[in-house]
Design a protein that fits this description.
The chain is of the alpha+beta class and 228 residues long. The chain is 54% helix and 20% strand. A hairpin with a 2-residue loop joins strand 4 and strand 5.
Length: 228
């Protein structure tokens, strides 16, 4: 199957299944299955690098800058739907060239300073390529959303050789992640009255959480200074 062949064209999945063409269906889907496996491998590479950094900080400084690491590979249906929204045929080649967030990593840190420190160390590694950086902490979205988004290139090593993959890495504090999770749930509630007022309240909460992050960071820095 060519990388320019559409992944199981619309309506053909059920036809193949109902006609008993299971082998044909599997052969058609194989390149996509391989692509998803490659993205899983990329996630493991990124997660390993982050865990190594966290372990090093723990050993050298008795401190873990990373609280949790969450990974996910984008749902296949979401991939196809996103390609259709973009008006692009969902071929393997188009998916690889167009989408940067199939492999996603969310890194939860204690303080904003930790976010920038770990992000800078990660992207300075010689096998990592920084493709894009969007700082929604310094420049929050209008709704109050704060996070540091990186798109990176990272190699995986297969039996056929090295392959460069892309991954999206989002860095947030615990408070930022708490706000974003609740905002996401509330945003998809239907028939919400006074949505403008609710959005304004969420923005106020985001600003308050940001202030708390800064104050907690200042307290941490003061404690470290007083302990010297």
């Amino acid at each position: 199957m060519s990388e320019n062949t559409e992944i199981i064209p619309a309506g053909s999945f059920e036809n193949m299944l109902n006609s008993g063409h299971t082998a044909e269906l599997l052969e058609t889907a194989r390149p996509f299955i391989e692509l998803m496996m490659h993205n899983e491998c990329a996630l493991r590479e990124v997660e390993t690098k982050l865990n190594v950094l966290n372990d090093e900080f723990s050993t050298l400084y008795n401190y873990n800058p990373i609280e949790t690491i969450k990974t996910r590979v984008k749902d296949p249906l979401s991939i196809v739907e996103k390609m259709h929204r973009k008006g692009i045929t969902p071929t393997i080649e188009n998916i690889e060239n167009t989408l940067n967030d199939i492999a996603g990593v969310r890194v939860i840190c204690s303080f904003p300073e930790d976010i920038y420190a770990i992000a800078d160390i990660l992207t300075a590694q010689d096998d990592i390529t920084l493709i894009s950086r969007k700082d929604y902490i310094a420049n929050p979205k209008p709704n109050g959303y704060r996070s540091l988004h990186l798109i990176i290139g990272i190699p995986i090593f297969l039996s056929t050789g090295k392959k460069m993959m892309k991954a999206e890495v989002q860095f947030r504090t615990i408070a930022m992640d708490f706000w974003a999770s609740l905002e996401h749930k509330l945003k998809y509630k239907h028939n919400v009255k006074n949505s403008a007022a609710i959005s304004a309240q969420l923005k106020e909460c985001a600003d308050a959480i940001s202030d708390i992050d800064i104050r907690m960071q200042e307290i941490r820095n003061q404690i470290e200074k007083d302990s010297e």
